[in-house]
Amino acid sequence: MRRSTVLIVDDEEALRNFMRRNLEARGFRVLTAADGMEALHQFEQHRPDLIVLDLLMPRLDGMEVLRRIRRKDTTPIIVLTALDDEGDKITALEQGADDYLTKPFSVGELLARVHAVLRRARWAEASPSEGTMLRVGDVELDIEGHRAYHKGQLLDLTPTEFNLLKILMQHKGRVLPHRWLLQQVWGEEYSDAVEYLRVYIGRLRKKLGETKEHRHIWTEPGVGYWFE
Known about the structure:
- The protein is α/β, with parallel strands linked by helices.
- It has eight helices and twelve strands.
- The protein has helices spanning 13-25, 36-46, 62-70, 86-95, 107-125, 159-170, 178-185, 194-207, and strands at 5-9, 29-33, 50-54, 77-81, 99-102, 133-136, 139-142, 147-150, 153-154, 176-177, 217-220, 224-227.
């Protein structure tokens, strides 16, 4: 089985080494970068399976690195944030981050996040047996090909966005509770992380070009979401 490659990007050498040692001990191949420019170079050269990205760095900050990668690629990204930077967490998720880790964090937290994000990405890439097209209005989902279309135009979705859209469309017309959606898309350990769901629903709405007059994703306040 091929080892997953993780790119660690942080300007603190001690923290980079801490993450590298612990991930390598669990069988990961690890690359490191000390700033944003080096991170982009490593990314282009090696195309890692996952990036762990600090937001505060010299030369090019992590948020800009995230934006540049998301313009052309859906590689899973976990951002590292300070304890009180709630705004940075939400902004990073809105810009395309898949998850975040708050400093300081333990080895267990690091491994749990890494495994969870890779699991979601692999689940999205695994070819399902049904191999069907889902259609709701002007939205089409090619399950086997892992492609989504709106009015015939290909949508640029991350694996997590694809999973969320798929579940919403498979249960069209039914209100899906927040907790249930979080468990289905992110896993049991994310059952109470409503901010993830709120941000990802917002990202899907934007990519679907929703307006007040034309919507696919509807909100049932305090309960959940449904698709029609």
